[in-house]
Amino acid sequence: MTSTRVAQPEVKTKVLSKLPFRTGTAASAVWQGFAGSVMLLLGSLGVGWLASSSVLIRNPLFIVARTTPVAVIVATVLLCLGAALMLRGWLRLRQHLVSWDESSAPVLKKALILWVAPMMFALPLFSRDSYAYIGQGRLMQQGLNPYTDGISALNNYFSLGPDTLWTEAPTPYGPLWLWLEHFAVLLPASSPEIALIPFRLACLAGVVLLAIYIPKLAARHGFNPHRALWLVVLNPVVLINFVASVHNDSLMLGLVVAGLYYASSKRAILGILLVTASIAIKPITLIALPFVGLLWAGSQAGWVRKFGIWAATLGISTAVMGIMGAINGLGFGWLAALQTPGTVWIWYAPIGLFSNIVGFVVTLLGGGGASVTDVIQGIGQVASILIVMVLAFWKINLPSSASADAGLTANAGSAFTNPEAHGESQRYSQAVLRRMTWAFAAVVLMAPMIQPWYMLWLVAFFAVTGVKEGWQLRTVLYLTAFFTLIALTDQLSVFPWIPVVLVRSVAIGVGVLSILYVMFWDKKTRGLFVPSREPARSTTA
């Protein structure tokens, strides 16, 4: 998946004529996304997550919104239509800003602000992880070890609002996030929602970091920074999962992208420190460390220098993590908790689905199906580690600058000309980070559990190393639509006396129909998913 750069303006014009381009104003797309975000806010009042100990649950507005079946169904419909409208606004922005020149920047910034602002005030949507953060902070407050004790060790833990799936599990997070969790529960408040404020601000900081460094890293590799900003940061799956759902992957990803930018810009120590800070949020970004070492070593490094740099990179990161562990008294306890997410599976994860189908068949035949499932999942994890090692150790052969330039074809979707991007340093950085992207992809795709926000890691890394127009971009669009739909049909907070089957059926029905409408029936956006030879043109948004 390598992107392309514009070589000659006249070729660019020719390509533009083949795109599913619609005339109109980008402002209409911006306000569509804003309206969708407001609808998500309103929908969260009825089916967003509230802890049973929250004072808001006794507020008359919330009582009506959450205990009346009609109100709950209306809130569910608002969520589905709001998400679909955000998706449509995002797609329409791409059509209006297809040239991706400097005039795109203020439009994209305005869209980002307007789309994020309403969701900052929404109740947590589609996930209760933010309430698990509070529970883990309570563990820290009471002197318990969150790497060995689950939230269930707390008295009245259920009133904090965490998902029961995780109440017995140790935390998979690093020391930096544990400190934030501890700080959050020290805030004087009578409602858990006040404790959520630090987590929301941390997730917002992650989005801001992405908005700064995704364009910078894309531009360093010769790709259009505005297109990268649109593709990643304004992606509705990013905003829904990072802002509305309050997932700490936002800060984790923002820090690792910032670290990769500095590592690729000859500021390796700063890069290592930022990536280490990312590891201290969620340790999965350990995968990035060997590739940061390759960036530090440079394209001309031999094996002696590479191993020396790898040792130095690991040493710096380990020392920083060791200091953090010494301060909080938990050491490297997070290493044992790395397997926590692997205890569950989901149907759209290839390894998860395959292992459980095989295990089910073996059980039917009288065998030990659970053991077979575990073995298959273990093989997948080992294979992913081996793939990461191969990608890190396999020699990188760079094409010459001349051959690289000769291979570039004009492409309006990645129209960006950067003379420096043809240098060896930039081409090496792109090659190393593309290797790293495939390493993350291997770990994600070979895990039994794939959360929607895992896709966002890959979208970010692929975007800064090149995503072509055509099937590559279309793949991202399909994944975005799919994971938007997955969010809508996932976790909704519904009181026991309200028929949950009815509410979930409404979510599935309205969600599927609205997303499919945007993908295949809307005359203005369907060409992005099923391109026609002569796309229809429109003068309105």
UniProtKB/TrEMBL annotation:
Cellular location of this protein?
Membrane
Against InterPro entries, the record matches this protein to:
MptA/B-like
Q: How does it sit in the membrane?
A: Multi-pass membrane protein
Broad class of the protein's primary localization: membrane
| GO molecular function annotations of the record | glycosyltransferase activity
Keywords (alphabetical) are:
Glycosyltransferase, Membrane, Transferase, Transmembrane, Transmembrane helix
The record's Gene Ontology cellular component field reads: membrane
* Family matches, as Pfam families: MptA_B_family
- Which NCBIfam families does the record associate with it? MptB (NF038066)
The Swiss-Prot or TrEMBL record describes its family as follows:
Belongs to the MptA/B family.
Protein's recorded name: Alpha-1,6-mannosyltransferase
Upper lineage ranks?
A: Bacteria, Bacillati, Actinomycetota, Actinomycetes, Micrococcales
